[in-house]
Write a structure and sequence with these properties.
The complex is a heterodimer. Chain A is built from five helices and five strands; from the N terminus they run αβαββαβαβα. A five-stranded parallel beta sheet of chain A has the order 2-1-3-4-5. By secondary structure, chain B is mostly helical. Helices cover 73% and strands 0% of the residues of chain B. The N and C termini of chain B lie far apart (39 Å). Classes of the chains: A alpha/beta, B mainly alpha. At the A-B interface, α1 of A face α3 of B.
Chain lengths: 137, 310
Amino acid sequence: MSLALKALKKSPWVFHVNTGACNNCDIEILDCLTPRFDVERFGVVLVGSIRHADVLLVSGPVTANVLPRLRRLYEAAPRPIKVVAFGACGCKCGIFRDGYNVVGPMDKYIPVDAYIPGCPPKPETIISGIVKVLSQL
Amino acid sequence: MTAFGYIVKYLLFPGFVFSAVVGLLTTWVDRKVTARVQYRVGPPWYQPFADTIKLLGKEVVVPAGARTTGFLVMPVVGLAAATLASTILWLVNLDPTVSFVGDTIVVLYIMTIPALALIIGGSASGNPLGILGASREMKLMFGYELPLVMAVLTTVVKVGSFSFEKILIHQEYNGVMLGSVSGVLAFIVAIFCAQAKLGFIPFDIPEAETEIAGGTHIEYSGAPLAVVRLNTAIMYLVMPLFIITMFWGGVNFVGWRILTSILKYVAIVVIIVVVKNTNPRVRIDHALRFFWGPMFVLSAVALILATLGY
């Protein structure tokens, strides 16, 4: 394993995008940064720009309006980039499955490396998802 | 000293390699103390090094609307300037006789270059938020440079010389600047200016992760981002060192003074981190008013007291 890949495992930076979720998943993501779980122990931080990111965390079913933005985000990300589908909606559109404006799920449009199911996923599930993504590297 | 000797000093010790390692360790201390303040555990000690190596291995994306040369060269210019400032300060502190006339002014000038480089780099990125960050950085520079120069002038007036050698020797025989009223006032002003120069909360207005998504850094990825972050890390070493040299008798590696030197450095870093963690981000006009109002008045009072001999 190369040095850069080893370093990547020690500091995955996450860019989080909401593609039409109900905001509950977003709250659970912030839970991971609180004292109880503190994923910064493993070098995980939330970044503000997709150019800094190693992991693209997508929560929500993909709506028609957000689809072009999601594609652009995926193209703008510097490689290697890992894509994670987050929550029931990110994996299979959840309760929004029959919505008139829902064109998801997201894995129809961009390749997904890991699924974190749950509505919303518990922080423990999220940490196990992080481990899954990192073990693929 | 020969030209080759200077190049070795610039690249190895106390220049690039040494400054980068100590600077990155300082950013770790920053993150760890921040985590402890928030009752978290925080990252392990090698975290900044892992971040840097990872970024060096990632793809470099140059956005379609960017001016490629300016965008990619400017972080390196900033890094070169920060390293030069660090080298001059360490050399002067370790052996005051290498000081030259007016090196205080030279270091003050060099320390503005990393910020200027970020302004040009952010403007060249072609991203509206990057340009917004660059314009805010420019306004912030107008704000903090004036009180910082006034604070430095306080020491210069007191010592009667612009060279680090005279400043260090004066503090060696007549007690440190912090022992006098004007010194304490100027020190307070310098700490706040350091906060703004390093781009930390409450003055992280140009970067503002939650608001303009990284500002001047927004389009940087891979190796250039690593250089930008190294830049910040080395400035994190330079600013406390500059303040210690000007107001607290400098650092030294002889005998017991190693311990006091490290303690001084850590004390200033902890002050900066605590200010960072107990304040919200201010608006750019509030920051300008703060620096041109209270800070300017404070530094002017310090300067007047210094001319009167207090």
